[in-house]
Amino acid sequence: LRPDLMKPYPSRNLNQNQRIFNYRLSRARRVVENAFGILANRFRVFRTTIGLDPDKVVAIVFATLCLHNFLRQQRSDAYIPPGYVDSEDANHQLVSGTWRSEGALQSVSANRARNPSVEAKKQRDVLVQYFVSPAGRISWQDNMV
Predict the structure, then answer these.
(1) Domain segments of the chain as ranges
(2) What are the recorded GO MF terms, alphabetically (predicted)?
C-alpha cells in the first residue's frame, strides 16, 4: 500500500464503506487488466519483463499505444472482436473476456511491503469517503457488497 498504489482492505470484519471500497477497487483493477491484457495479447513485447533502458521502454509503450489506438479506430471489430474484453451482465456480474484464454503473461515477483505508510492509509480512507459520497457513489454499489 502506497499513496499511488491501493490495495483492498483485508476481507475480515469490514464495514459497509470498506466493502464498497474493495468492490470499486476491484472494478478499477478489471479495467486495467483488460487494457493490459489486450496490449499483451496484441503486442507480445508486454508478455515479459522488457530488458531495455527505461527511455526505450517508454518509447515502446508509446508506439504500441499509438498502434493500438489506430487499430481500434480503423478496424475495431477485427482488432477487438465482441466478447474479447471483460464485461458485466445486466446484474453487474463479471463476464470474462476471451483475451484471458489467449496467452499467459509471465509472472513477475511482487515487492510486498508489509507495513503501509500512514500517508497511504490516509489516501485509502479518502477514497473510501469519496466512494460513498454523493459525488462518487454509484447507485447500485450497495447491492453489490
Answers:
(1) 16-100+115-144
(2) metal ion binding
| CA 86 to each of CA 40, 94, 118: distance values in angstroms, whole numbers, following the listed order | 15, 7, 34
pLDDT in tens, 67-100: 999 988 888 788 888 888 888 888 878 888 887 7
Q: Is the pLDDT of residue 35 over 50?
A: yes
- Rounded CA separation 19/108 (Å): 28
Length reported for the chain = 145
Phi, psi of 14 (to 5 degrees): -85, 145
Q: At what angle do helices 118-132 and 16-42 cross, to 10 degrees?
A: 100
Q: Which tens digits make up the pLDDT trace of 85-143?
A: 888 888 878 888 887 777 655 444 555 556 667 888 888 888 888 888 988 888 888 88
3-state helix, strand and coil shares in percent for the chain, rounded to the nearest 5: 55, 5, 40
CA distances in angstroms from 106 to 40, 69, 74, 77, 136, listed in the order given: 10, 25, 30, 27, 35
**Block residue for cell numbers 469517503:** 129
